[in-house]
Queue: 3 jobs
Job 1
Amino acid sequence: MPLEGRFTPPGDKSISHRLILMSLLAGEEMLASGLSDCDDVRSSLAIFRALGGRAEPEAGGLRLTGLGGRWEPPEGLELQCNNSGTSIRLLMGLLAGRPGSYLLDGDLQLRRRPMERVAEPLRLMGAKIGTAGGKPPVSIEGQPLRGIEHRLSEASAQLKSAILLAGLQAEGTTTVIEPAHSRDHTERLIDYFGGHIEIDSLTISVSRSELSLPRRFAVPADPSSAAFFLVAASIIPKSRVTAQNLLLSKGRSGFLRVLDRMGAKVSLTMLGDTPEPTGDVTVQHDGPLSATEIAAEEVPSLIDEIPILALAATQARGRTVFHKVDELKVKETDRLMAIRHQLGALGARVNAEGDDLVIEGPTSFIIPESLDSGSDHRLAMTLAIALRAAGASVPISGQGSISVSYPSFGEDLASLWKG
Ligand code: S3P
């Protein structure tokens, strides 16, 4: 049964987090439309309010009023990030230089994720940060900060963003040098909100700045959510799906370039460019896909789409290699292992060779009695698409996790897949 139709995925999760958290640093009000209402962004919003920010729903969006210089949160504030790695890591940078003391915590999955990669450079800036054996809960006592020059150990937008947000409050210049380009939403927003930032390829410098909010901000749709249906269209004969008003920055659209290389028909209609490029994207099935190699430098631009791209690779002729994807081991779950086990349970030939993920296709799926997402939202959606593509229906455990990033996934699935 083909997928057909147009849809608008929820607002981009990465931009929604940044818009909410960065608006704390500014004094004005802004009407934010299209914010994601996923669980992760709800966590950032609850923290925004706990810190004293005002967020009032009104026609057309949410009116956010930041704190700017009026920063007076209660002492020893406990802030619950739940499952959201972006919330905790961005907040570590944002709070390190603010008055007050804070405890940032999360759920059991977040409590297994590494935080020292963020804490270490922030300590070099003068931050007082403690972790529990490198993991959450993270304690912060706000301190005056000084700028540093720091070469990032991994191409991580969360890590980069934490240092840049601390740099906005630090004495002198703060410079980060990335090993490869990761998503640049924080940089774009700092610039758009009038902060001092200079970018020279992989080197980004900021200095102490007051941010000031525009009156309105429209969040474009999330490409990482759209990817589930766009990739599904590439593997299911006769499918044609259009995702509307999608965020299309280079750091987020790697999966579209990979689909194009694999032989799907991908077409873009650009809509806007400031502060982020947006457009409508159509993916049409165009015969069987072919295998491809995904270079290590490309990985940050499609890091969250690897589970669904891995599914595409199981249907492609030949050997697809995702190079150097060891970062997947420290996502919501060990995603490298989860992809291998769950696509393996469907009969796919999926192996880890060192830090590479290697998939031999094409595979005719065999249907097990059940599948297990390990409560990883991106795996749960990938498995749901795999079963639909195979025309099968078996229980997938942990599907409730889908609301972490895409609460309306089931509705969009039903509207595009009418069969
Ligand atoms: C994100 C960055 C990525 C991504 C995550 C969201 C962000 O994580 O996997 O879902 O909004 O900055 P890393 O920075 O750890 O690669």
Note: The radius of gyration is 21 Å.
Job 2
Amino acid sequence: MAINDIYQAVLRFDKSGMAGLVQVELDAGTDIASLLNEGLIAALDEVGDRFSRGELFIPEMLQAAQAAQQGLDILKPLLTETNSRSAGTVVIGTVKGDLHDIGKSLVKMMLKGAGFQVVDLGVDVPLERFVRAVEENRADIIALSALLTTTMPAMGEAVAAFRGNGSRVKVMVGGAPVTEAFAERIGADGYAGDASQAVSLARSLMAG
Ligand code: B1M
């Protein structure tokens, strides 16, 4: 049994076997970061590459995501368990027009594990819902995820809206096509390349 089995299971769209494979690795003492990065996430990257090359199509991409999700469900309690008191409140969501959920959910889990209260608005979230949720929850931070180059502009619109309405919420952005340079260009308070960087960034935004 090895992490490669988990990687291969995503590529086989093996929804029913995934939980067992991940549990075996956990029981063997494999660390969660390796399970995620070398197993589930690396496999989804390969799926994306195969999609780009026209070797598989949307239904298969969706099935691969569902298989990976089964593995994440096993890791969820380990990522979210915390004893610390609230580190701050974060509203998180994937921007309008974008249905990609997995990376955003991973960021949510890690933030929860780090003691943040997290309000997850889901995917395809219109700007007005972000604005309302920030007010209703008196959020300290808003975390925006985008996986498509076509939906990234919604992040700039969100930053402009929060600056325009005088909100003091800190805006952090992330997602595969998002870069530090893009974050700076739109005036976001920070960019995180992965879920653990998102935790460090959220902590430093709370401190600053
Ligand atoms: Co989509 N898709 N997809 N897809 N999909 C990508 C993103 C793509 C790169 C594939 C490819 O062509 N190589 C490509 C985007 C190209 C582009 O715009 N540059 C693409 C496309 C084109 C599409 C469609 C347009 C296909 C079509 O219909 N023709 C369509 C769009 C639908 C829509 O959103 N409106 C589409 C649909 C789908 C599915 C629904 C089938 C499915 C998503 C299912 C789901 O999420 N429940 C799907 C999938 C699975 C993927 C890939 C294969 C995997 C995404 C993923 O979950 N990765 C993806 C290829 C790839 O990413 N290599 C692809 C694992 C996840 C853990 O990583 O989300 O990057 P990621 O999150 C990371 C970091 O980015 C960061 O932390 C996470 C953990 O480390 N992060 C943040 C993310 N959000 C953050 C927020 C933060 C901080 C960090 O807050 C501050």
Note: Residues 41, 44-45, 47-48, 51-52, 58, 61-62, 65, 97-104, 106-107, 143, 145, 147-149, 172-177, 192, 194-195, 198 surround CO-5-methoxybenzimidazolylcobamide (CB under 6 Å).
Job 3
Amino acid sequence: MVEDGRRVLANLIHSQVALHRSYGGVVPEVAARDHLEKLPGLVDAALLQAGAKPGDLERLAVTRGPGLVGCLLIGIGVARGLGAGWQKPVTGVNHLWGHIYGALLTRPELEPPLLALVVSGAHSDLVRMDGHGQFEVLGRTRDDAAGEAFDKAARMLGLGYPGGPALDRLARTGDPARQPLPEPSLPGLEYSFSGLKTALLYRLRDLGEDVTDADRADLAASFERSVVESLLAKLELAMDRHPGAEVVVCGGVAANTLLRLRAAEVVGAAGARLTIPSLELCTDNGAMIAAAAHHAPRAELEADPSLAW
Ligand code: KG4
Ligand code: ZN
């Protein structure tokens, strides 16, 4: 629950990590069923935490996509039901817009125009935001998203689920210089992480049975460095092309320790101002969706079913 699109009153997250761990990844059907079970109680708890009644709400916000279709349908169904019962408008929000609006909850003075690097489990997009609800995608990945690459690398390194945070922790103990991996380099503002993933696979294959825990830590650090430097090289190029814009780095991968550190250095060196959402506002959450709905309510659920930026 959010006030004025810039202040969090309640942000409750029901984590499904424990539920999916035994499968080694998210099982869509299991995720959707759990959404249905947990969502109504979570809405009640958020109202309680914010000290609010349904009548106090201006509107309801729900993610309309992109995401797992079963989970989206349940969210939309619950929002529609509550909207009808409480007689409130329901706004459908693009998931990726939500990640950018999470930055406004962290720094309420932030205003467009801005450049955003949106890095999640399914997206690595460089976006220019000229005004509220006005987005232009400048570049994206040709294959894997950064989060997906981290998750797959973590699996290769035997780190289990969820992979991104585990790889982050292991990388802190490794030295990237001892097991260098290539840094992807496509022309322009496009990303590609599949070659890097293959390089890690071959390196592990070469090491075979001899691989040590220290090798794994070095490889995690090296993989992380290649992804992060590639993400930031393109962000730098986008900053050159769009001088003067504030910069946002957001999405689940923006929780990564090295990315947070290096983004501050790279954006600072370019003389621009950087906002990265606080950790709890980086990975998927309801507050960022509510903030987006406040600032860009034109995407009414009924009127705009498209999933594009
Ligand atoms: O935005 P998000 O919560 O969900 C999607 O929209 O996909 O992003 C999840 C992604 C996952 O791939 C996860 O491994 C990655 O963000 N992630 C991280 C870290 N925390 C989450 N990747 C690297 N380092 C982290 N600390
Ligand atoms: Zn997300």
Note: The domain at 112-279 is CATH 3.30.420.40 (Nucleotidyltransferase; domain 5).
